[in-house]
Amino acid sequence: MPISARWHAQKQFLRKVYNRQVNEWFRDVTNDDDLSTPRKAAKSACLITSEDSQNLALIKMTTFFKLVNPNAEFPIIYGLPDTAFRDVVKFKPQVRLYFRGYTDRQTTDEIAKKLEGQVSFRLMDENYSTSAINSLALKVKNKFRNFFYQRGDALYTYTDQRRGYHFQLYVGGEIAAKKVIEAVNDVAANTTLDWTLLKNHSRNQDLPKIKGKLTVMGETRTIKNVTRSGRVYFAYAELFIPDWGEPITLVDGTGTRPRAIEVF
Questions:
Q1: Which residues on neighbouring strands pair with residue 233, listed in sequence order?
Q2: CB 195 within 8 A of CB 178
Q3: Model confidence over 139-176: pLDDT tens digits?
Q4: How far apart are CA 185 and CA 91, in angstroms?
Q5: Which residues in 56-69 are b (16+ Cβ under 10 Å) and which e?
Q6: DSSP 8-state code for residue 161
Q7: What is the pLDDT of residues 213-228, one digit of tens each?
């Protein structure tokens, strides 16, 4: 079979099977040429059309599986598969805030390596009404849309089970830790924070550049101590509800999250 005929048959298969995944992920977005919103532009960047070449189709698939929905091929797990975990563990709904940025200091091994941060907290009031979730999404958007903090190697914890707080924050210092906790506390509508609960678990910051050497199956490599720090900016927020399965996207500032309640 000629190459062009093979590609035509392959493209038909991809448009039927792969495009189905893309349409499901972007099922809140119509199929048209309007690219006025980030999600419409993202969907257009992923769907394979009848005119696409092999290279363009490959780029679109890479865009979807690597950038837009990297978890498409793998289920969420907690040491156990998601369904098995939920059968044995009960917990409160959780809000997860995701942050992205870039390193301050880039070595030859770290050029253009992205820096990420994640902060989560539990909702003690299990109100799943439309108005309650919409209100939560708006609060997160208003508080975090321009929010950033300094990520670093200093580990700070803050645990208050009564309020659903169990923070483990890798930040640049105490100021950054308090900035994050205060912002979350504002969204969660809690009152005064008890700063005696804030603990510093920072390791020695004066680390040698070379950690040592490691030999595996006769091959020796030099292991470096890499300090990764820099500003991370709010990207999106999700709400995980027990037994609900797919998380609800509360806020999206990336244009890639499905059916976000609030966008910016």
A1: 100, 148
A2: yes
A3: 999 999 999 999 988 999 999 988 889 999 999 999 99
A4: 20
A5: ebeebbebbbeebb
A6: G
A7: 888 888 888 877 665 7
